[in-house]
Design goal:
Blueprint: E1 7-10, E2 16-21, H1 26-38, E3 42-46, H2 52-63, E4 67-70, E5 77-80, E6 90-94, H3 99-112, E7 115-119, H4 130-137, E8 142-145, E9 154-157, E10 165-169, H5 174-187, E11 193-198, H6 204-216, E12 221-224, E13 228-231, E14 242-244, H7 249-261, E15 263-269, H8 282-288, E16 292-295, E17 299-303, E18 308-309, E19 312-314, H9 319-328, E20 332-333, E21 336-339, H10 351-361, E22 365-368, E23 373-376, E24 384-386, H11 392-398, E25 413-416, H12 428-435
């Protein structure tokens, strides 16, 4: 894994072109690991993401007694399913800053029972988990906060589950519903479990990923729109044998945006029109901004056809990839507005605040609302040292400010703490450099 210096200096880049093989999807990787651990049988996982977040999940499963092995030095893993209950009933688990690990694991552990503590880095202890805990404790689990109420760290003990009907709020994080859906078959041994969503459900495409993978592991979920989900009694997870992890569609956004800004074509491989990830819809936003997009079953390509146009759109469905649009807006003619992105505030950092601060360093005029950003680019980008807030997506997004676009030139950019990209894409800057022509 790459070891980065304290900062990385990027010079202006005149043109980008090339093909990028994407790392595996974080969302698919961590869901698949947990489902494989809970399933009956052995699962061979191909192209698992190598990153901090998947390492956190692998180490937690190991501590819980789940046996797995990596095939040579590849990204192929073999997970020996524990058949619906973890072999180890007493464990202290470090979850880093991995929301895709701590939330589903909390639900699974609370339902299967034992004595567990879950904690993470300081930022994890600021990321809400109260809606999930409330939903679980209401049906008899015993989850207690050992720090600030509503946030990790957590202490889980064995409860008495009566989960015919559950309720969870949908407007803070879709991961709470994902966690309940993944744990539901463990609660539906004797009778069906119904999960009702209270209020608006955000980030719906991530629930589609969850439902798709649950089905791959042999469990059917019946749904009533986005309002309620039913898991019939008596279903158990069973290994699908071999499962391939798609390339990460959120990671694809940086390279596709680069092609849209600075010529291209740039092709990403590992994700395409057949993807189960909602973030592939990022390309619709790039097309609205004037980029040329073409797609195959397992690839997407972007190129520029002149200056980008400003965009005004709702990005509730693709909050992670929408960060890339915020930086692409620097190359658009006019003012862009990103709406319905309130979930940014409870991610790896408060991304609305962080994005506003860093865009202003480059000379942009930014209006920051509770759940929106409005970005007016400057006549010329200013050189800047970008702080990354221990947030992988901040580092990757702002690399794009070095690109020369049709509307305005890129600038010298210093990325502070570039190693934060290890959360999902440890080799990001090497790959970025490969598609970047000499400026």
């Amino acid at each position: 894994m790459k070891h980065y210096p304290h900062h990385l200096d990027l010079k202006p880049v005149s043109h980008v072109q090339g093909t990028v093989r994407l790392p595996g999807s974080k969302s698919i990787s961590n869901r698949t690991l947990l489902l494989a651990a809970l399933a009956q049988g052995t699962t061979r996982i191909m192209e698992l993401l190598a990153s901090d977040d998947t390492h956190v999940m692998l180490m937690a499963l190991q501590k819980l007694g789940v046996q797995w092995e990596q095939v040579d030095a590849s990204q192929e893993y073999i997970v020996h399913g524990a058949g619906g209950a973890f072999p180890v009933h007493h464990a202290d688990l470090f979850m880093g800053n991995a929301g895709t690990a701590i939330r589903p694991l909390t639900a699974a552990l609370a339902v299967t029972g034992g004595d567990y503590t879950l904690h993470g880095v300081a930022r994890m202890h600021e990321r809400p988990i109260g809606d999930l805990v409330d939903a679980l404790n209401a049906v008899g689990t015993r989850i207690a906060y050992t720090g600030e109420p509503g946030y990790p760290p957590l202490h889980i003990q064995r409860g008495q589950i009566h989960a015919e009907r559950m309720q969870v709020r949908g407007n803070v994080s879709s991961q709470f519903l994902t966690a309940l859906l993944m744990a539901a078959p463990l609660m539906a041994r004797e009778q069906a479990v119904v999960i009702d969503v209270i209020g608006e459900l955000i980030s719906k495409p991530y629930i589609e990923i969850t439902l798709n993978l649950i089905q791959r592991f042999g469990v059917q979920v019946e749904r009533n729109g986005w309002q309620s989900f039913t898991v019939r009694a008596g279903q158990q997870y069973a290994s699908p044998g071999t499962i391939h992890v798609e390339g990460d569609a959120s990671s694809a956004s940086y390279f596709l945006a680069a092609g849209a800004i600075a010529g291209g074509p740039v092709r990403v491989e590992g994700v395409g029109r057949d993807s189960i990830q909602g973030d592939v819809r990022f390309v619709e936003a790039l097309e609205q901004m004037g980029a040329n997009i073409s797609m195959g079953d397992t690839w997407i390509e972007a190129s520029s056809s002149g200056a980008l146009k400003a965009i005004d759109a709702d990005f509730n469905h693709i909050p992670d990839a929408a960060m890339t649009i915020a930086v692409a807006a620097l190359y658009a003619e006019g003012t862009s507005t990103l709406r319905n992105i309130g979930s940014w505030r409870v991610k790896e950092t408060d991304r609305i605040a962080a994005m506003a601060i860093e865009l202003r360093k480059l000379g942009a005029h930014v209006e920051e609302g509770e759940d929106y950003l409005r970005i007016t680019p400057p006549a010329q980008l200013r050189p800047a040292a970008i702080d990354t807030y221990d947030d992988h997506r901040m580092a990757m997004c702002f690399s794009l400010a070095a690109l020369n676009g049709a509307a305005r030139k890129g600038t010298a950019v210093r990325i502070n703490d570039p190693k934060c990209v290890a959360k999902t894409f440890p080799e990001y800057f090497e790959v970025f450099t490969k598609i970047a022509g000499k400026g």
